[in-house]
Amino acid sequence: MPQYIGYHFIVIPKEPGAEILMAELGEKPFESFEETENGLSAYIQKQFWTEDVLSDIQILESEEFTITYEFEEIEQVNWNEEWEKNFEPIDVDNTCRVRAPFHEKIDVTYDIVIEPKMSFGTGHHETTFMMIQHLLETDVAGKKTLDMGCGTAILAILAEMKGAQPIDAIDIDNWCYLNSIENAERNNCSHISVYEGDAALLQGKSYDVIIANINRNILLNDMQQYVNCLNKGGILLLSGFYEEDIPAIDESCTEKGLTFVKKHQKNNWVSLKYIN
């Protein structure tokens, strides 16, 4: 069982500071993140940790934010045991239920079984919840689909349950890559191909539906690549950002020829739907 170093950041102002910090740390071998009341906690395997692991994290030098932190070696934890203690099933619009393997199965249209370990995407976070809502409202049957930044592959799994195929699920994080493969198999999905990498993998690809639940900076950076491989009439579902980020996201989408269709909002998080 790997040992971890945990960094606990206090970020002022928290928004959008914590999101920017997470994006920059995501370029390092940090495996998981937890939003806290005052900022962010980030975890890295001890074997990948070095004393200068934060040396080129630019936001730490920014005058716009005040960021302090402390770090600690985390005692070995049975993550599955922690997961079982803290996870409750998620019900979305009485249509889709996200549960762990140890939860009782009940009669619901889409029953998704997820064991995320340290990956993102249980349905608990507002962004995943809203992306599920968008997918429930969208006809994806027979449509070639991309789940970009797939985390646990929960959205790819729901897409297949709704008839989408074939489906590519991509994540830059090795833990997410492995976990997505496990979860796709657990839900008897036969049309999902999981890849480890970033938007460079999209070269020469084309999709009818693109799902991207990542964060503002990565979305803006990769938006042109998404549009390049989105078929005419194709659908782009975006989340991972706050309400105040909408103008930047919308400008990027509309200047590339996309048309806004719908917004979901949960607390201060938002999810947007566009059509090409």
- Report, as a whole number of angstroms, the end-to-end distance: 46 Å
Q: How many structural domains? A: 2
Looking at the structure, the CATH topology of the largest domain is: Rossmann fold
The biggest beta sheet is recorded as: 7 strands, mixed
Number of DSSP helical runs: 7
The backbone outline, from C-alpha atoms, is globular
Structural class: alpha/beta
Portion in helices:
25-40%
Q: Total number of β-strand segments?
A: 14
- How big a fraction of the residues is strand? 25-35%
Instruction: Give unreliable regions as ranges.
Output: none
Order of helices and strands: EHEEEHEEEHEHEHEEHEHEE
Reported CATH architecture of the largest domain: 3-Layer(aba) Sandwich
Under CATH, the homologous superfamily of the largest domain reads: Vaccinia Virus protein VP39
Order of strands in the sheet with the most strands? 10-9-8-11-12-14-13
Kindly state the mean pLDDT as a whole number?
89
Report Rg: 18 Å
CATH domain class name of the largest domain: Alpha Beta
How would you describe what is shown here?
GO terms for molecular function: protein methyltransferase activity. It is built from seven helices and 14 strands. With 276 residues, the chain is of the alpha/beta class. It has two domains: 4-76, Alpha-Beta Plaits (2-Layer Sandwich); 119-275, Vaccinia Virus protein VP39 (Rossmann fold). Helix 6 (216-228) packs parallel to helix 7. The protein is globular and about 50 Å long. The model has no long low-confidence stretch (mean pLDDT 89).
